[in-house]
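Incident log, structure service

09:12 report received: a user says their structure output differs between two submissions of the same chain.
09:20 pulled the input from the user's history:
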Amino acid sequence: MLPLKLRIFEYAYQVGKPFTAQDVLRDLASEYKGEKQFNKKRIMEYLQSFLGVGMLEAGEVEYDENGELIVHCKITDFGLSRVKYIPKH
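09:34 re-ran on a clean worker, output below:
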């Protein structure tokens, strides 16, 4: 199993369309069941770090029914150029 941060980046590549932290939580839950770091806060931190270095870019932004910000992310060309460094598992 890949470390969560790297798996989120791989997910961004594999999904091939804009996604949210909620999508990551839903789609990777079975892989990281029981892991303390697998939570919305940590996933948001990792997404922010990928946004900060240009591997992901923010697209549509909205608020959910609780007033929480939802950012749709997608992989950038720079991010695509780094996919080759993801170890095969």
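09:41 both user submissions now match this output. Likely a transient worker issue. Closing.
09:42 reviewer note: The helical segments are 4-15, 21-28, 40-52, 77-82. The longest strand covers residues 56-63.
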